[in-house]
Amino acid sequence: MYESSKGSVEYALARFQLAETLLVIGERNGSHATLLEASDEYREALKVLSRETHALDWAMVQSGLGGALTQLGNVSHESKYYLEAVECLKAALTVRTRDEFRLDWTVSQTNLANALLSIGLDETGTSHLEQARDAYLTVLEVDFQTAAPEIWGAARAGLGGALQFIGERVGSVELLSEAVSEYRLASGVFQFGRAPRYWARIHINIARTLIALSKLENKVGICFEAISILTPIQSILTPETTPVDWVKLNETLGDALYEVALHVRDVSQARLAASAYNAALHVRRFKRVSFSLSTIRASRRRAVKLIATLRHEQSGSRSAQ
């Protein structure tokens, strides 16, 4: 379908549109192959477009490629994708400047922050996480909430993520509390009725942050709040249609239930935790899912061990009576 116009701007933009569609599908399904195909389509468009002859279109494609490479890194955990994503996005920002193309700048700057955040998640320190936080804050200096609410919401959610992970690593209740506030601002944009999958994703992140807060403050009641947030999301996500989000939902639910079981010594809560981890591992049936499930397997083993411990405690208590 492309051969007759190959080498034209129309051809390049058609490849760009195909790449955008593949990116949405690959991001939803966690498919390495689909995301790789999307990145190839962006690269095909860049063979035609150049900064010198079609600067705005070239920058648009560079920005899209940066987003696809970030998602590739997320499913493969290969840092080379993140590093290339940063280069693509910085290139796009040489054209999409804050003064001349403000809304386009917010998209590329947010994507750059996303790439930096992903690099930071694979590191032990907080350097790239702090760079991501600063990049999100730079975006949010611009008043564009009305003009582009979804981009604004994505930047708010990204800032929440940066604050969450920095807070977890440095043990800061203040940063984790700020993260919850940012996520809740983002959820005002991605409401359930308009964008249920993004609404669900943001609320999973809120729950994860609340679990971290409960550990720092030693307040198990916060985990009950996390469970109440997560429970209705189970009716929205499925392992078939949204496997990545399904895994995150059930892993987070398992973590919250485990913390409750650990603190109140309730074997039924420990069993529910193990069941949640099993539900997350159900995605093994879908070969297109590329991410590692080793952490969840370890969490399930931990929950099973706690079940045995609590049953032993109950048995000992009955014997003593």
Give a concise summary.
The protein is mainly alpha-helical.
Structural write-up:
This protein has 321 residues and is mostly helical. It has helices at 9-29, 32-46, 55-76, 79-93, 102-121, 127-140, 149-170, 173-187, 196-217, 221-230, 243-264, 267-281, 294-320. Helix 3 packs antiparallel against helix 4 (79-93), helix 5 packs antiparallel against helix 6 and helix 7 (149-170) runs antiparallel to helix 8 (173-187). The chain starts with 8 loop residues before the first helix and ends with a helix. The relative contact order is 0.07.
Count of runs of 4 or more consecutive helical residues: 13
Output mean pLDDT. Answer: 91
Strand content: under 5%
Q: Based on the structure given, which CATH architecture of the largest domain is correct?
A: Alpha Horseshoe
Give the CA-CA distance, first to last residue. Answer: 79 Å
Task: Bin the helical content.
Answer: over 70%
Q: Would you state the CATH class of the largest domain?
A: Mainly Alpha
Biggest sheet, in brief?
A: none
Q: What letter string, H or E per element, gives the SSE order? A: HHHHHHHHHHHHH
Low-confidence stretches are none
| CATH fold-level name of the largest domain | Serine Threonine Protein Phosphatase 5, Tetratricopeptide repeat
Structure characteristics:
single chain; 321 residues; mainly alpha; Serine Threonine Protein Phosphatase 5, Tetratricopeptide repeat; 3 domains
How are the SSEs placed, and which strands pair?
Layout: H1 9-29, H2 32-46, H3 55-76, H4 79-93, H5 102-121, H6 127-140, H7 149-170, H8 173-187, H9 196-217, H10 221-230, H11 243-264, H12 267-281, H13 294-320
Helix pairs in contact: 1-2, 1-3, 2-3, 3-4, 3-5, 4-5, 5-6, 5-7, 6-7, 7-8, 7-9, 8-9, 9-10, 9-11, 10-11, 11-12, 11-13, 12-13
